[in-house]
Design a protein that fits this description.
Two copies of one chain form a homodimer.
Chain A: H1 11-25, H2 32-39, H3 43-49, H4 53-73, H5 75-78, H6 82-99, H7 101-109, H8 115-140, H9 150-162, H10 164-167, H11 177-190
Chain lengths: ~200, ~200
Protein backbone atom coordinates (compact mmCIF):
# COMPACT_ATOMS: atom_id res chain seq x y z
CA UNK A 1 0.00 0.00 0.00
CA UNK A 2 1.17 3.48 -0.80
CA UNK A 3 1.42 5.76 2.17
CA UNK A 4 -0.45 8.84 1.05
CA UNK A 5 1.53 11.95 1.75
CA UNK A 6 -0.01 15.22 2.78
CA UNK A 7 -0.93 17.23 -0.30
CA UNK A 8 1.65 19.97 -0.38
CA UNK A 9 1.53 20.28 -4.17
CA UNK A 10 1.18 23.47 -6.07
CA UNK A 11 -0.22 23.28 -9.62
CA UNK A 12 3.41 23.68 -10.80
CA UNK A 13 4.93 20.85 -8.77
CA UNK A 14 2.03 18.50 -9.52
CA UNK A 15 2.54 19.25 -13.20
CA UNK A 16 6.18 18.29 -12.99
CA UNK A 17 5.27 14.86 -11.55
CA UNK A 18 2.54 14.36 -14.16
CA UNK A 19 4.88 15.17 -17.05
CA UNK A 20 7.38 12.63 -15.82
CA UNK A 21 4.69 9.93 -15.69
CA UNK A 22 3.30 10.91 -19.12
CA UNK A 23 6.80 10.65 -20.61
CA UNK A 24 7.43 7.27 -19.01
CA UNK A 25 4.09 5.58 -19.71
CA UNK A 26 2.82 7.62 -22.63
CA UNK A 27 -0.16 9.96 -22.18
CA UNK A 28 -2.67 7.31 -23.35
CA UNK A 29 -1.19 4.74 -21.00
CA UNK A 30 -1.43 7.00 -17.94
CA UNK A 31 -4.48 6.82 -15.66
CA UNK A 32 -5.42 9.09 -12.76
CA UNK A 33 -4.48 6.08 -10.62
CA UNK A 34 -0.91 6.19 -11.98
CA UNK A 35 -0.72 9.93 -11.32
CA UNK A 36 -2.06 9.50 -7.82
CA UNK A 37 0.53 6.80 -7.05
CA UNK A 38 3.43 8.80 -8.52
CA UNK A 39 2.44 11.95 -6.64
CA UNK A 40 1.71 10.00 -3.45
CA UNK A 41 -1.60 11.81 -2.96
CA UNK A 42 -5.18 10.69 -3.50
CA UNK A 43 -7.05 11.14 -6.76
CA UNK A 44 -9.44 13.55 -5.09
CA UNK A 45 -6.45 15.67 -4.03
CA UNK A 46 -5.39 15.79 -7.67
CA UNK A 47 -8.92 16.83 -8.67
CA UNK A 48 -8.55 19.64 -6.16
CA UNK A 49 -5.82 21.08 -8.44
CA UNK A 50 -7.00 20.14 -11.93
CA UNK A 51 -10.11 18.92 -13.74
CA UNK A 52 -8.34 15.78 -14.97
CA UNK A 53 -5.39 14.41 -16.87
CA UNK A 54 -6.18 16.30 -20.05
CA UNK A 55 -5.84 19.59 -18.16
CA UNK A 56 -2.41 18.45 -16.96
CA UNK A 57 -1.48 17.64 -20.55
CA UNK A 58 -2.71 21.03 -21.75
CA UNK A 59 -0.72 22.86 -19.08
CA UNK A 60 2.40 20.83 -19.81
CA UNK A 61 2.43 21.27 -23.57
CA UNK A 62 1.46 24.93 -23.16
CA UNK A 63 4.59 25.46 -21.13
CA UNK A 64 6.71 24.03 -23.96
CA UNK A 65 4.81 25.91 -26.67
CA UNK A 66 4.89 29.21 -24.77
CA UNK A 67 8.67 28.84 -24.39
CA UNK A 68 9.11 28.22 -28.11
CA UNK A 69 6.75 30.95 -29.33
CA UNK A 70 8.29 33.49 -26.94
CA UNK A 71 11.56 33.12 -28.90
CA UNK A 72 9.90 34.58 -31.98
CA UNK A 73 9.00 37.76 -30.07
CA UNK A 74 12.51 38.38 -28.79
CA UNK A 75 14.19 41.42 -30.34
CA UNK A 76 16.99 39.43 -32.04
CA UNK A 77 14.38 37.23 -33.73
CA UNK A 78 12.59 40.25 -35.15
CA UNK A 79 15.30 42.69 -36.21
CA UNK A 80 18.06 42.40 -38.76
CA UNK A 81 18.97 40.10 -41.60
CA UNK A 82 16.84 36.94 -41.85
CA UNK A 83 19.80 34.53 -41.71
CA UNK A 84 21.06 36.13 -38.48
CA UNK A 85 17.57 36.01 -36.99
CA UNK A 86 17.31 32.36 -38.04
CA UNK A 87 20.58 31.48 -36.36
CA UNK A 88 19.39 33.23 -33.21
CA UNK A 89 16.13 31.24 -33.27
CA UNK A 90 17.98 27.93 -33.77
CA UNK A 91 20.23 28.61 -30.77
CA UNK A 92 17.31 29.70 -28.61
CA UNK A 93 15.34 26.58 -29.60
CA UNK A 94 18.19 24.45 -28.26
CA UNK A 95 18.17 26.51 -25.05
CA UNK A 96 14.41 26.23 -24.55
CA UNK A 97 14.58 22.52 -25.28
CA UNK A 98 17.25 21.95 -22.65
CA UNK A 99 15.60 24.26 -20.10
CA UNK A 100 12.15 22.69 -20.54
CA UNK A 101 13.31 19.19 -21.50
CA UNK A 102 10.45 17.07 -20.06
CA UNK A 103 7.80 19.50 -21.33
CA UNK A 104 9.23 19.64 -24.86
CA UNK A 105 9.69 15.83 -24.83
CA UNK A 106 5.99 15.44 -24.06
CA UNK A 107 5.05 17.99 -26.73
CA UNK A 108 7.04 16.09 -29.36
CA UNK A 109 5.40 12.78 -28.44
CA UNK A 110 1.83 14.06 -28.66
CA UNK A 111 -0.15 11.96 -31.14
CA UNK A 112 -3.54 13.59 -31.70
CA UNK A 113 -6.06 11.33 -29.94
CA UNK A 114 -7.69 14.09 -27.87
CA UNK A 115 -8.69 17.68 -28.55
CA UNK A 116 -5.74 18.94 -26.51
CA UNK A 117 -3.33 16.80 -28.50
CA UNK A 118 -4.74 18.00 -31.81
CA UNK A 119 -4.49 21.59 -30.60
CA UNK A 120 -0.85 21.02 -29.59
CA UNK A 121 -0.04 19.50 -33.00
CA UNK A 122 -1.64 22.52 -34.68
CA UNK A 123 0.44 24.93 -32.58
CA UNK A 124 3.61 22.94 -33.36
CA UNK A 125 2.85 23.20 -37.08
CA UNK A 126 2.34 26.94 -36.65
CA UNK A 127 5.72 27.28 -34.97
CA UNK A 128 7.42 25.18 -37.68
CA UNK A 129 5.74 27.37 -40.28
CA UNK A 130 7.03 30.58 -38.65
CA UNK A 131 10.59 29.22 -38.70
CA UNK A 132 10.16 28.04 -42.31
CA UNK A 133 9.11 31.60 -43.23
CA UNK A 134 12.34 32.90 -41.73
CA UNK A 135 14.32 30.33 -43.71
CA UNK A 136 12.46 31.37 -46.86
CA UNK A 137 13.32 35.03 -46.22
CA UNK A 138 17.00 34.10 -45.73
CA UNK A 139 16.93 32.18 -49.01
CA UNK A 140 15.37 35.21 -50.75
CA UNK A 141 18.25 37.31 -49.39
CA UNK A 142 20.64 34.80 -50.99
CA UNK A 143 22.10 33.93 -47.57
CA UNK A 144 20.80 30.36 -47.48
CA UNK A 145 21.35 27.74 -50.18
CA UNK A 146 18.64 27.52 -52.80
CA UNK A 147 19.14 23.86 -53.73
CA UNK A 148 17.30 22.38 -50.76
CA UNK A 149 13.57 22.98 -50.67
CA UNK A 150 12.56 25.19 -47.70
CA UNK A 151 10.02 22.83 -46.16
CA UNK A 152 12.43 19.90 -46.40
CA UNK A 153 15.29 21.93 -44.91
CA UNK A 154 13.04 23.04 -42.05
CA UNK A 155 12.04 19.45 -41.33
CA UNK A 156 15.63 18.26 -41.30
CA UNK A 157 16.80 21.09 -39.05
CA UNK A 158 13.92 20.51 -36.65
CA UNK A 159 14.74 16.80 -36.81
CA UNK A 160 18.28 17.49 -35.68
CA UNK A 161 17.23 19.81 -32.85
CA UNK A 162 14.27 17.76 -31.67
CA UNK A 163 16.37 14.58 -31.54
CA UNK A 164 17.94 16.10 -28.43
CA UNK A 165 14.99 14.94 -26.33
CA UNK A 166 16.19 11.37 -27.00
CA UNK A 167 19.72 11.82 -25.68
CA UNK A 168 20.29 15.14 -23.91
CA UNK A 169 20.39 14.69 -20.14
CA UNK A 170 21.15 17.73 -17.99
CA UNK A 171 23.08 15.69 -15.43
CA UNK A 172 26.01 18.06 -15.10
CA UNK A 173 28.41 15.38 -16.38
CA UNK A 174 27.57 15.45 -20.08
CA UNK A 175 27.57 18.28 -22.55
CA UNK A 176 26.45 21.70 -21.47
CA UNK A 177 23.60 23.57 -23.03
CA UNK A 178 25.91 26.12 -24.67
CA UNK A 179 28.18 23.45 -26.15
CA UNK A 180 25.16 21.81 -27.76
CA UNK A 181 23.76 25.15 -28.99
CA UNK A 182 27.14 25.98 -30.57
CA UNK A 183 27.39 22.54 -32.19
CA UNK A 184 23.86 22.71 -33.59
CA UNK A 185 24.39 26.23 -34.98
CA UNK A 186 27.68 25.19 -36.60
CA UNK A 187 26.27 22.05 -38.18
CA UNK A 188 23.03 23.65 -39.33
CA UNK A 189 24.69 26.66 -40.93
CA UNK A 190 28.11 25.40 -42.02
CA UNK A 191 27.88 21.61 -42.01
CA UNK A 192 30.48 19.04 -41.06
CA UNK A 193 32.99 19.66 -43.80
CA UNK A 194 36.12 21.59 -42.95
CA UNK A 195 36.52 24.63 -45.20
CA UNK A 196 39.85 24.69 -46.93
CA UNK B 1 -17.10 -10.82 -35.33
CA UNK B 2 -14.11 -10.88 -37.62
CA UNK B 3 -14.45 -13.16 -40.59
CA UNK B 4 -11.28 -15.21 -40.43
CA UNK B 5 -9.61 -15.39 -43.78
CA UNK B 6 -7.76 -18.44 -44.97
CA UNK B 7 -4.17 -18.30 -43.82
CA UNK B 8 -2.26 -17.48 -46.98
CA UNK B 9 0.49 -15.68 -45.08
CA UNK B 10 4.16 -16.23 -45.54
CA UNK B 11 6.48 -15.31 -42.66
CA UNK B 12 7.31 -12.16 -44.71
CA UNK B 13 3.76 -10.94 -45.29
CA UNK B 14 2.71 -11.70 -41.71
CA UNK B 15 5.71 -9.67 -40.54
CA UNK B 16 4.61 -6.70 -42.59
CA UNK B 17 1.18 -6.72 -40.92
CA UNK B 18 2.73 -7.13 -37.46
CA UNK B 19 5.13 -4.20 -37.96
CA UNK B 20 2.25 -1.95 -38.93
CA UNK B 21 0.34 -2.89 -35.77
CA UNK B 22 3.47 -2.49 -33.58
CA UNK B 23 4.05 0.99 -35.02
CA UNK B 24 0.42 2.02 -34.49
CA UNK B 25 -0.13 0.61 -30.99
CA UNK B 26 3.42 0.38 -29.71
CA UNK B 27 5.04 -3.02 -29.16
CA UNK B 28 4.04 -3.14 -25.47
CA UNK B 29 0.46 -2.23 -26.33
CA UNK B 30 0.10 -4.99 -28.94
CA UNK B 31 -1.38 -8.36 -27.98
CA UNK B 32 -1.58 -11.56 -30.04
CA UNK B 33 -5.30 -10.73 -30.21
CA UNK B 34 -4.53 -7.43 -31.96
CA UNK B 35 -2.21 -9.20 -34.40
CA UNK B 36 -4.80 -11.87 -35.09
CA UNK B 37 -7.48 -9.23 -35.80
CA UNK B 38 -5.20 -7.17 -38.05
CA UNK B 39 -4.08 -10.20 -40.02
CA UNK B 40 -7.59 -11.63 -40.16
CA UNK B 41 -6.37 -15.09 -39.14
CA UNK B 42 -6.61 -16.97 -35.86
CA UNK B 43 -3.99 -16.81 -33.14
CA UNK B 44 -3.16 -20.47 -33.68
CA UNK B 45 -2.50 -19.72 -37.35
CA UNK B 46 -0.03 -17.03 -36.24
CA UNK B 47 1.63 -19.54 -33.89
CA UNK B 48 2.01 -21.77 -36.91
CA UNK B 49 4.42 -19.15 -38.33
CA UNK B 50 6.14 -17.76 -35.23
CA UNK B 51 6.65 -18.59 -31.56
CA UNK B 52 5.05 -15.32 -30.47
CA UNK B 53 5.10 -11.55 -30.75
CA UNK B 54 8.70 -11.24 -29.56
CA UNK B 55 9.83 -13.36 -32.51
CA UNK B 56 7.96 -11.01 -34.84
CA UNK B 57 9.71 -8.07 -33.18
CA UNK B 58 13.11 -9.74 -33.53
CA UNK B 59 12.53 -10.46 -37.22
CA UNK B 60 11.30 -6.94 -37.86
CA UNK B 61 14.15 -5.09 -36.16
CA UNK B 62 16.65 -7.56 -37.68
CA UNK B 63 15.47 -6.54 -41.11
CA UNK B 64 16.16 -2.87 -40.32
CA UNK B 65 19.50 -3.63 -38.64
CA UNK B 66 20.66 -5.95 -41.44
CA UNK B 67 19.87 -3.23 -43.97
CA UNK B 68 21.87 -0.66 -42.02
CA UNK B 69 24.87 -2.90 -41.24
CA UNK B 70 25.04 -4.08 -44.88
CA UNK B 71 25.87 -0.48 -45.86
CA UNK B 72 29.13 -0.67 -43.92
CA UNK B 73 30.25 -3.68 -45.99
CA UNK B 74 29.63 -2.03 -49.36
CA UNK B 75 32.79 -1.23 -51.30
CA UNK B 76 32.26 2.56 -51.25
CA UNK B 77 31.94 2.46 -47.46
CA UNK B 78 35.26 0.63 -47.12
CA UNK B 79 37.59 2.20 -49.66
CA UNK B 80 38.90 5.70 -50.06
CA UNK B 81 39.06 8.84 -47.99
CA UNK B 82 37.03 8.72 -44.76
CA UNK B 83 34.97 11.84 -45.53
CA UNK B 84 33.90 10.38 -48.90
CA UNK B 85 33.02 7.06 -47.28
CA UNK B 86 31.07 8.95 -44.61
CA UNK B 87 29.08 10.86 -47.20
CA UNK B 88 28.34 7.55 -48.95
CA UNK B 89 27.12 6.01 -45.69
CA UNK B 90 24.89 9.02 -44.91
CA UNK B 91 23.23 8.81 -48.34
CA UNK B 92 22.78 5.05 -48.06
CA UNK B 93 21.28 5.42 -44.56
CA UNK B 94 18.61 7.71 -46.04
CA UNK B 95 17.97 5.14 -48.78
CA UNK B 96 17.68 2.20 -46.37
CA UNK B 97 15.43 4.26 -44.12
CA UNK B 98 13.06 5.09 -46.98
CA UNK B 99 13.15 1.54 -48.41
CA UNK B 100 12.53 -0.11 -45.03
CA UNK B 101 10.51 2.71 -43.45
CA UNK B 102 8.16 0.71 -41.16
CA UNK B 103 10.99 -1.58 -40.00
CA UNK B 104 13.36 1.30 -39.21
CA UNK B 105 10.51 3.20 -37.54
CA UNK B 106 9.94 0.23 -35.23
CA UNK B 107 13.68 -0.10 -34.56
CA UNK B 108 13.93 3.56 -33.54
CA UNK B 109 10.97 3.24 -31.16
CA UNK B 110 12.29 0.19 -29.32
CA UNK B 111 12.52 0.94 -25.60
CA UNK B 112 14.32 -1.95 -23.91
CA UNK B 113 11.65 -3.79 -21.91
CA UNK B 114 12.39 -7.25 -23.35
CA UNK B 115 15.57 -9.14 -24.23
CA UNK B 116 14.95 -8.58 -27.93
CA UNK B 117 14.53 -4.85 -27.40
CA UNK B 118 17.74 -4.64 -25.36
CA UNK B 119 19.56 -6.60 -28.06
CA UNK B 120 18.22 -4.20 -30.73
CA UNK B 121 19.34 -1.16 -28.71
CA UNK B 122 22.79 -2.71 -28.36
CA UNK B 123 23.04 -3.29 -32.14
CA UNK B 124 21.88 0.29 -32.79
CA UNK B 125 24.60 1.58 -30.50
CA UNK B 126 27.12 -0.59 -32.37
CA UNK B 127 26.03 0.89 -35.70
CA UNK B 128 26.19 4.45 -34.32
CA UNK B 129 29.65 3.67 -33.01
CA UNK B 130 30.85 2.43 -36.42
CA UNK B 131 29.64 5.65 -38.07
CA UNK B 132 31.21 7.74 -35.29
CA UNK B 133 34.53 5.96 -36.01
CA UNK B 134 34.27 7.02 -39.64
CA UNK B 135 33.58 10.59 -38.58
CA UNK B 136 36.58 10.45 -36.27
CA UNK B 137 38.79 9.24 -39.13
CA UNK B 138 37.52 12.07 -41.35
CA UNK B 139 38.32 14.56 -38.59
CA UNK B 140 41.82 13.08 -38.24
CA UNK B 141 42.27 13.63 -42.00
CA UNK B 142 41.33 17.26 -41.45
CA UNK B 143 38.30 16.89 -43.72
CA UNK B 144 35.71 17.38 -41.01
CA UNK B 145 35.54 20.31 -38.61
CA UNK B 146 37.32 19.79 -35.32
CA UNK B 147 35.24 22.19 -33.22
CA UNK B 148 32.26 19.86 -32.74
CA UNK B 149 32.90 16.81 -30.59
CA UNK B 150 32.60 13.56 -32.63
CA UNK B 151 29.98 11.87 -30.45
CA UNK B 152 27.83 15.00 -30.40
CA UNK B 153 28.13 15.46 -34.17
CA UNK B 154 27.19 11.81 -34.71
CA UNK B 155 24.11 12.19 -32.52
CA UNK B 156 22.98 15.33 -34.31
CA UNK B 157 23.48 13.81 -37.76
CA UNK B 158 21.62 10.65 -36.75
CA UNK B 159 18.94 12.90 -35.26
CA UNK B 160 18.46 14.63 -38.58
CA UNK B 161 18.35 11.38 -40.57
CA UNK B 162 16.22 9.42 -38.10
CA UNK B 163 13.66 12.23 -37.89
CA UNK B 164 12.59 11.10 -41.36
CA UNK B 165 10.51 8.30 -39.85
CA UNK B 166 8.26 11.02 -38.41
CA UNK B 167 7.46 12.75 -41.69
CA UNK B 168 8.69 10.85 -44.76
CA UNK B 169 5.80 9.12 -46.54
CA UNK B 170 6.54 7.26 -49.78
CA UNK B 171 3.21 8.20 -51.33
CA UNK B 172 4.56 9.17 -54.71
CA UNK B 173 3.28 12.74 -54.26
CA UNK B 174 5.84 14.07 -51.82
CA UNK B 175 9.60 14.18 -52.03
CA UNK B 176 11.46 11.36 -53.66
CA UNK B 177 14.08 9.28 -51.93
CA UNK B 178 16.92 10.81 -53.98
CA UNK B 179 15.78 14.37 -53.33
CA UNK B 180 15.86 13.69 -49.60
CA UNK B 181 19.24 11.90 -49.78
CA UNK B 182 20.69 14.90 -51.67
CA UNK B 183 19.23 17.38 -49.19
CA UNK B 184 20.53 15.45 -46.18
CA UNK B 185 24.02 15.11 -47.70
CA UNK B 186 24.13 18.83 -48.52
CA UNK B 187 22.96 19.94 -45.09
CA UNK B 188 25.12 17.48 -43.16
CA UNK B 189 28.31 18.31 -45.04
CA UNK B 190 27.89 21.94 -46.13
CA UNK B 191 25.10 23.35 -43.96
CA UNK B 192 22.40 25.84 -44.84
CA UNK B 193 24.53 28.89 -45.43
CA UNK B 194 25.17 29.94 -49.01
CA UNK B 195 28.90 30.21 -49.71
CA UNK B 196 29.87 33.56 -51.10
Amino acid sequence: MTTAKRDTYTPESLLSVAVQVFNERGYDGTSMEHLSKAAGISKSSIYHHVAGKEELLRRAVSRALDGLFAILDERQACEGRAVVRLEYVVRRMVEVLTAELPYVTLLLRVRGNTGTERWALERRREFDHRVAELLKAAAADGDVRGDVEVRLATRLVFGMINSMVEWYRPDGRGMGEQEVADAVARLVFSGLREDR
